[in-house]
Fold this protein.
Amino acid sequence: MRTALVIGTGLIGTSAALALASRGVRVHLRDHDPERARTAAALGAGTDDEPPGPVDLALVAVPPARITAAVAAAQRQDLARAYVDVGSVKGALRADLDAHGCDPTTYLGTHPMAGSEKSGPLAGSADLFEGRPWVLTPTSVTDTEVLNLALELVSLCRAVPVVMDADAHDRAVALVSHTPQLLSSMVAARLENADETAVRLCGQGIRDVTRIAASDSGMWLDILSANPGPVADVLEELAVDLAGTVRALRGLESVPAAGTEAADARAGEGAADEDGKAALALSDVLRRGREGSARVPGKHGQAPAAYETVAVLISDRPGELARIFADAGAVGVNVEDVRIEHATGRQAGHVQLMVESRAAQPLAAALRERGWALRTE
Ligand SMILES: NC(=O)c1ccc[n+]([C@@H]2O[C@H](COP(=O)([O-])OP(=O)(O)OC[C@H]3O[C@@H](n4cnc5c(N)ncnc54)[C@H](O)[C@@H]3O)[C@@H](O)[C@H]2O)c1
Ligand SMILES: O=C(O)C(=O)C[C@]1(C(=O)O)C=C[C@@H](O)C=C1
């Protein structure tokens, strides 16, 4: 990639522009607030001059509700060979782009899983995406060139590409991003009218839980409005845990202190069983929380997961890569990383799809069934 145009020079656009510019890409910066594009340019993210002709890649990094209009306008003006957005919800956006007649062959929906509660160009940094998953959601009509340019963008930002179906992505981020944002806001909202004596005692625990509650509420309203069903599903599961926890705590609230007459009388009434159940319900939710927390990648410094490779022979024809990813998505397999080996002197190559070990066999079988030739390692 030689040239790029970043549309929307806030936190994400400026961070990507800084990474691209530092790796030799000529980056043009555009924002509907020209002061923001100037600020990004002053930070070394590129130039706010208009590009002299179409660039290789246009990166659309505007708020979710504005992405469709920005992609449609950029495509109409023929600004680039490939158009990539970074919005936090992918399924609803695709439907919206289709409804607005956007060209699906030159567009690819992506989502870097890195960010901050801060916004604007001054919050940007070149290393924001390093080592972070960056989701790509190609379809069977995405041009191979467009997918390759997006993979190059991810690689230049030192992120880890994860290829996913758009709806599967939306369900996943409902669990790992959108619901946590809402819960953080709800915990922080308890402080709104809290007594000053309580607020003064805030320690690290509440700071960890409420950092993202400071995020831009307009942006989050857009995000949640575009992914309502999957977020409501996770909240319903949480509501079961919440109701069980309240029941358990209310039960424990009425337990008299051990050794008192009231406690003896209660034991005589056989209430000890009830008290034990309440304590069990509480310890169960705490135990499950520890197990879930241990699964957060990298949190405890584990080495990155070792993936298995499924190597697929492709011919050098438009749409081949996108077709493989769509086939992998159709059988519910996430491609965690991709490498492409070009066969010298031939119009063909191998795509190495890196997947979790348990997904390798089913993916290989499904691809063979769909007519792909696989290299046996
Ligand atoms: N903040 C995060 O943590 C995060 C992480 C991953 C992805 N995202 C996604 O990235 C996108 C940008 O988020 P951000 O955090 O960088 O927001 P931001 O507010 O920091 O930046 C958005 C920028 O877009 C500009 N803008 C708005 N409408 C425009 C238009 N029509 N044309 C040109 N510029 C326009 C604004 O002036 C602003 O500078 C959003 O779609 C968001 O869902 C955000
Ligand atoms: O680190 C943060 O501040 C974020 O909230 C970033 C975060 C997330 O991890 O949930 C928020 C929304 C984006 O769509 C992607 C990333």
